Amino acid sequence: MLHFSFKHMINKVRGGVVSPLTLNDIGVLGMNARNINYIARYNDRKKYPIVDDKLNTKHAAKKAGIPVPELIEAFETPASRKRVMEVIDPLWQFVIKPARGSGGKGILVIAGRNGDKYKKISGSEIEALDILRHVNNIHSGLYSLGGKPDRVMVESLVDFDPVFQSYSFEGVPDIRVIVFRGFPVMAMLRCSTHDSDGKANLHQGAVGVGIDLATGNSCHAVQRGLRINRHPDTEVHFDQLKVPGWYDLVRLAASCYEMTDLGYLGCDIVLDRARGPLLLEANARPGLAIQVANGVGLRRRLKFIEELDEDMLNKNVDERVAFSMREFAADKGF
Ligand SMILES: Nc1ncnc2c1ncn2[C@@H]1O[C@H](COP(=O)(O)OP(=O)(O)O)[C@@H](O)[C@H]1O
Ligand SMILES: [Mg+2]
What we know:
single chain; alpha+beta; Dna Ligase, domain 1; 7-stranded antiparallel sheet; 6-stranded antiparallel sheet; 12 helices; 32% helix; globular; binds adenosine-5'-diphosphate; binds magnesium ion
């Protein structure tokens, strides 16, 4: 899908000429270059456990003063399963997720109750037994990296900011920010669709909207690699979309550099109606589709940061955010 998406970008730029050279020309960062020049070079493997396990991320974020969705309970061992019903029975809404999951797999978003039934965010209903089975599957490693036994998290449902109401169908939109050596370099909003079952992961059919780092305004949107102007379910145009509290959100992303000590990072942030931006997760191997969502390659921006002098690299978080907002504004064509 990614390959097709890049082709689409090139078609737009070059009238259909597709070759590795043209990919290079428009500054698209490929998988090998990302892995070798950025992930391997700037991410210390010893730090991976902080981001590869969402329970660890929660604890690290708490320590660093970074707000996160509330953890209601963690079921760390199969024996702890006997308490699942006791914990979720009093809850009206909640999210169950595998600590070591990725790509939206194994995330169960319960948005309400109907008698004994639990209502998924898409409207379909499941029973307590289905939830117990799901918890069982998570523990046995069905959704975890490498199929290893996993821990189960019960998290509060994010009450997302109503500005996104018309841009998201049956789910919570999240904002991905790529942070390189502490500098935010690119951002996108991911909106769930009917196809993506309440989750904002692009390969599950969510919409990717490129967001101008300088302003928080949308600048480009795609679904399944194709450019679109309106949300496929709500039909609302993306050109009016502006993320509120943009500075605070970008600042939160940039501060994940100090929290994780990882040089190349993808931060996933949700906007809660009452609490503002919350860190959902951080990723040491963030995907490349953000370039498609923005219609812009990452390479030049990353090079630009790589060439900064030592003095700039030691700037504090506010200085780094101000720098990125200035240098990577969409109207600069960088
Ligand atoms: N607490 C939550 N409240 C509401 N939606 C959530 C919550 N946690 C996750 N989601 C939905 O599921 C998606 C994936 O969650 P995330 O924690 O990023 O896991 P993954 O590593 O699988 O991407 C999010 O983009 C969001 O749409
Ligand atoms: Mg995610």
